[in-house]
Amino acid sequence: xxxxxxxxxxxxxxxxxxTALANAQTSADAPPMRGHGLEFGMGGHMGFFARxxxxxxxxxxxxxxIMEKEHPTMKPLFQKERKIDRQLRAYVEGTYDPVKVxxxxxxKAKLEVELTVQQTRIHxxxxxxxxxxxxxKVKELEANREARMQQHMQNEPPPPPSE
Length: 163
Hints:
The structure is a single chain. The protein is mainly α. The chain is built from 5 helices and 2 strands. The protein has helices spanning 2-22, 46-53, 57-93, 98-127, 132-154, and strands at residues 34-35, 38-39. The protein has a two-stranded antiparallel sheet. α1 (2-22) crosses α2, α1 (2-22) crosses α4 and α1 packs across α5 (132-154).
């Protein structure tokens, strides 16, 4: 169980850091894409990370270029994800059909794999644009976030005893 939680936290952290780097847009002309509760586009939290990492205008422009280049690849994946989520929601609000829900869940799982692969590739491209000092700062921010998550998990009430 802890191994699964740790892997999930690491994956979430990669997505958060990558999303932060992806948000390096200097203008609002690229439409944002949303997925996994995080903004894939270029608005959002980037002001914080741009300041924390002291991104240059050139780095911001390069990150914006990456996001614009990847937009046509990612948009259909996020659209498929939203479509599956709407279909699943129909089974929450209507008649529950475990066979159809399982089929949709399997589709979503395959889509999540593809989204994770693509997002990790994009985040790696952006990470490579950082200087070694900026990369060290990202690692420091990741470590701080991980420490907060661990603290949060330790403060959770214990699960009820299983019989």
